[in-house]
Amino acid sequence: xxxxxxxxxxxxxxxxxxxxxxxxxxxxxxxxxxxxxxxxxxxxxxxxxxxxxxxxxxxxxxxxxxxxxxxxxxxxxxxxxxxxxxxxxxxxxxxxxxxxxxxxxxxxxxxxxxxxxxxxxxxxxxxxxxxxxxxxxxxxxxxxxxxxxxxxxxxxxxxxxxxxxxxxxxxxxxxxxxxxxxxxxxxxxxxxxxxxxxxxxxxxxxxxxxxxxxxxxxxxxxxxxxxxxxxxxxxxxxxxxxxxxxxxxxxxxxxxxxxxxxxxxxxxxxxxxxxxxxxxxxxxxxxxxxxxxxxxxxx
Length: 299
Ligand SMILES: Nc1nc2c(ncn2[C@@H]2O[C@H](COP(=O)(O)OP(=O)(O)OP(=O)(O)O)[C@@H](O)[C@H]2O)c(=O)[nH]1
Ligand SMILES: [Mg+2]
What we know:
The protein is 35% helix and 22% strand. It is an alpha/beta fold.
């Protein structure tokens, strides 16, 4: 065995909506790459977050929560989640202390058939009522469902168990040359993070169907020495939604814009000039053409 052997691989994070997959990826990578909110279906894409050291490269993928699709956008989201079963070297299946383990047996059966290491992460143990005994029951239940998986209780939010998980991943990682340049942190361009940060504010500030009817497109991203100038468009499905996004006298949109600008300034570490427009793209989330245009179809 070569003395200077290098390890690298794809570590894909899957699970049901809202269990903490994106929170976990951000903790593992040490950067806020993937937006995470209290609402289910926050993540819509497969997003890579890369950890580099001289001896190894871990390519994490965050994916959308697995769901039964009701419209074309959700079909694309599910395709991203399923693609993560195809190319993983190690799979992280995330659940939490409250979800019913039998919730999504179709997907679990696919996970069970995989012949790569599967780490089953029971997240949110900070919220566990019933202490050790209850945790024991949960672990036992999962062990029956996925007998080949290693089960680790964690709290992604409090970073409990995350360092141990990272060490276990390093042990399991195959020997391989790096897949990406060693200074690369993600596979997505700057514009992607702009649209995600704006969408995060929409998830936080609007109710019901609104966040799920919205897509954000960045039409201009111009960086000079001191500033970044950004023009973005929030697309909604119907005229009535446009009114809700803008709000009375534009107050709601102003709040989104201000909060997004503050987060973008943190992310890019530069002053930002942000202009946001709202447009209607009728039924975009059911249109194959529009979904292609918005980058929802996996390569
Ligand atoms: N109490 C607690 N909450 C957590 C923990 N990890 C994540 N959360 C919260 O759970 C919610 C969902 O987190 P996300 O990371 O967005 O979950 P996700 O699995 O990526 O969700 P989708 O992208 O919608 O599938 C957020 O409100 C998080 O703050 C944890 O360890 N403990
Ligand atoms: Mg997510």
